Structure formats: C-alpha cells, structure tokens
C-alpha cells in the first residue's frame, strides 16, 4: 500500500484541549429553567437540620424533641432575650424550637440571639438537670423580673410518707404548676439517646438504682420445708403424693379449683414436657408459657356466680401493676428519701395472683374500694408473682430477678399500708405479730430451673416501714419428677394460705377501716354475711 493510502486510512484524532475541566455547554434560558429543581415549600428534612455525626447536634436534637410536645414552656417572657429582635414573626413568637436552626441559616433578624442561645444550651451538660434549664434560668433572671417569686420548698416528708412522683409529660420538672414558672426536675433526666425518663428492669444497674435504695435485703443461702414454713399441723398436712381433691375437705376451699396434683403420674407428665422444651431447639416462649399452666392454674371465672362471700383467686398474665396513688396503690419509699433513680413500676409480671371478689355483691366491692386498691372491680391484695424465661443465662436471671422483686415489693408495700390504715382506724399500736402474715411470694422459672421466694416487711418498734427482707425458700429442676412435686406442693400451700389466712386478714382489716354499728347505711356493707 502506498504512503498516501496509509495516510488516508488513518483515523483523524480530535484536537487535544488544554483545559482539565472544560466549562459546561451553554444552555438556552428555556432549558436552564427546565433543569432547575422545583422549589419546595416543605421545611428541610430532619437529617439536614440535625446531622447525627456530632454530639452537640444530637444533644440539641434530644433537647428540642423533649420540648416539642409542650410549646408553652418557652413563653415570651422566658425567651425575651431572643424575641427582642424577632420582629413580628408569628411562628417565632409561638415558640417552635425545631425551627431555630432554620432561622439562623436563612438569616432571621434574631439569628445572633438564637445562635447564642443554642450555644448556651449545648454548653449546659449538668447531669442532674435538663439541658434547657440553665439557659432558661439565665434568660429568665436577666430579662424577666416581673414573674412571681418561687414559693419556698415544702418540708421534707418522713421516709414513711415519701412518694416518688414522675415528671409530667412535656414539662421541665415534676411539679410544673404555671406556664411561666421555671421548675427544675425532681429526678435526673435520661441520658442522651434514651427515650424514657426512667429505668427499665433490663438495665444492668437497675438493682443498685431502684431496689437497693428501698432497703431490700436478700438471703439466698436458705432452705425451708413447706410444712414447717406454713406451720401446718399433722392433720392439715397434705399427704405426699396426693390428688388435688385433698384440699376440698377444708372449709372455704371447696369452691376453688386451683390446686395441683402431686401424684407421680401427673408430675411425670409435667417433667417430660419440660425435658422436651429444653431438648427441642425450636421451642419458643409461647410453648414455655403454655407448659407453665400445668403448674400455675387458672381458676374458672363466672361473673354471674352465686354471691356466697367466699374469696377466690384470679391469675393475671402479663398484667400491668403500674401505681395509682389516688386508688391506694402507691410506690414504696426510698432510704434516704429521693436517693433512688426514678422508676414508675410500670412492669408486667409473667403471672400475678390476686384475691378475687367474684363471690361478693357489688355493694361490698364498692365499700371496700374506699380503703384498698381494687383493680378491675374485683381483684385486690395480690400475693404471688411468677416470672418465667425460656433461657437460663445471666441476662435472663437478672431480668427475672429484677421484675419479680419489684412486683413483690410493690404488692407488699400496699398490703402493709392497708394494715396501717386498719390500726389507725382502731387507735391501736403496731405489734411485732402484726407482720407475721403480711408477706408476698414469688416464683422464678428459668428454662427448667425454679426457685421460690418470700418477702416480708421490716419495721421499727413503732411500726414504721424500714424496708423488706427477701428470702429464698427452695429450688430445683422441673426435669425431675421430685422437682415437679416440690413446686406443686409449694404452689398448693401458697394458694391455701392466700384463701384462708391472707383473705381473712384482708377482710378484717377492711372491716376495721369501715364504720361499725347500727344498720345500713350507718353500718358498712363489709359486715354483711350470706343469708
């Protein structure tokens, strides 16, 4: 091929440019307008307003989120150092804290004051106060001298009268009384990132922060026999093994169907069930809960049953025991007062046994409600808390112990309060034997291992509450027939004690609180007997 042919076949190269980044091609005005993104009237997204890569921004985010439900907390008086330069912006004067960064970025007339205020918030890192309190206190003290002075603090109540009151939702503090009054919190606010203002039973420091300040002493190295613990005579002791029908011969227990068989055949069936639960790898929590009903029975209920004035039992699974101070259901005190972190006792034990008023008329329940907490118009004075977990590890053991202890402590404290009200109505002093039968039981089941506990009050010579004592009674495995028989015996005797001694003392305490003499309505319905 000739030289000219080779040259003509060569690909013509594009001329090289000496610009590393050539300018973009010029577009017509019509195309430029089409390429621009549409303007949005929506505010910037949360991620743009609060980048999550710095601690200060996360602090501000948590602070503003706390104040979002209650805008009146930031009144015009409290934020006068900002509103002085805000002009007539209605949104700003309304107190929308989530818009502050947007105003600063967009050049709000008060951006300098807003930015300074936000910096003050970020600098406030006192662990015992809400981050806004320091900045609000400065703004209020310098710019608002017309607010009424804060009332002097009330006298500190005694330990027996101390009550833990949770902070109200959307307010800065536990006693927010007026819109313009700054009140500091009575309890530490949550750490950054937490969504609740109180601890949870699963927290590692729950026992030291909640249970220990209530002065609960635990004895784990103890073992008691069921007949000795309840002081049963030879005639009252259940034979071993024995069918559940044995308890029907006692007065007051004929109508109850809550007792377990301790026969070998029945207990062997339960032991085999727990062996299967442990060995089968696909066992779930619902299966463990179903198998527990072989041991923890539910008494048949009937709203229209005959009113025979006999107490029954009612077991509530996963029922909340959250306090209600207005209905005689309060939280136990701390020692010294307010030393514990705030805990609202909003727990739900796996199973909680109550006394039931299904066998009493409605006027009896209405009268009893004046002196004791009654839940669901029929349940009062719980006596047994049960907590079960599908695993037997460190976390499950800690959580179950925390939950069952908190439930037992709450039930025991309110049972003690009923006895105190009864003695006060009679004008009697507390005696040592008063707390002999004031107690609450608990059972923990971890996989196939169980242990039984009892909690009793600790009082001084004057009968004032000084804490509680929690004692381990027994424990074994449910994979053995003897272990199932042992737990069935304890559950049977706990229920017998509850339906006889415990129920009778509750009835006597209620009658002691009620007016006596004459005929209804002068005399209380609590003295009525079946005709």
Keywords summarizing the entry:
531 residues, 2 domains, 8-stranded mixed sheet, 16 helices
Silhouette: extended
* Helix percentage range: 25-40%
Low-confidence stretches: 46-57, 66-79, 81-98, 124-136, 142-197
Find the count of extended strands (DSSP E, 2+ residues): 8
| Order of secondary-structure elements | HHHHHHHHHHEHHHEEHEEHEEEH
Question: From the alpha-carbon coordinates, what is the Rg to the nearest angstrom?
Answer: 34 Å
Total of DSSP H or I helical runs spanning 4+ residues: 16
Distance between the termini: 131 Å
Largest sheet: 8 strands, mixed
Instruction: Classify the secondary structure makeup into a structural class.
Output: alpha+beta
Share of residues in strands: 5-15%
Overall mean pLDDT? 74
Number of domains: 2
Structure characterization notes:
The protein has 531 residues and is α+β, with helices and mostly antiparallel strands. The protein has 16 helices and eight strands. Strands 1, 2, 3, 4, 5, 6, 7 and 8 form an eight-stranded mixed β-sheet that branches. Helix 7 (100-106) packs across helix 8 (111-123), helix 8 (111-123) packs across helix 9 and helix 15 packs parallel to helix 16. The longest helix has 33 residues, at 394-426. The radius of gyration is 34 Å and the shape is extended. Residues 75-86, 156-169 have a biased composition (Low complexity). Residues 1-92, 138-177 are annotated as: Disordered.
